[in-house]
Amino acid sequence: MYTLAVIDPQLYCLPSKEDLPGYGPLLEVEREIATAKQLGCDIVIVIYPEMGPINPRINQLLRGYNRVIRVEKQQWIGARQLLAGCREFGFNTNFFRVCGWYTHRCLQTTVQGLSRALPNCRIQVVKKACDDIEQNRWNTFPKLNNVELV
Question: How confident is the model at residue 56 (pLDDT cuts 50, 70, 90)?
Answer without folding.
Answer: confident
